[in-house]
Design goal:
The protein is α+β, with helices and mostly antiparallel strands. It is built from three helices and three strands, in the order E-E-E-H-H-H.
Length: 88
């Protein structure tokens, strides 16, 4: 759907869509047409988002696995030092 821009007599920017015979099929103000374009996601954008999400999942799983495998830090040496200091 190719759109061409025009100006109305009042100076408002317009988008016009023509059919195969060249007749105007649809005319909208640029403001309304652009607003609808921004609200909708194109097929290419949807595919790119899906690819990015699919690539992100393994990275998140690997990060979670690395966090789980890391050994927990022990605070026992501090407690032992405090107890030894109290006994003196």
């Amino acid at each position: 759907m190719a759109r061409t821009t025009h100006r109305s007599t009042t100076g408002t920017k317009l988008y016009a869509v023509r059919d195969k015979s060249g007749q105007f099929k649809d005319i909208q103000t640029y403001k309304r047409a652009h607003g609808q374009d921004v609200k909708r996601t194109s097929k290419a954008e949807a595919e790119a988002d899906a690819k990015a999400a699919a690539a992100e999942k393994p990275a998140k799983k690997a990060a979670k696995a690395a966090v789980k495998k890391a050994p927990a830090k022990k605070a026992a040496p501090k407690k032992a030092a405090k107890k030894a200091a109290k006994k003196k």
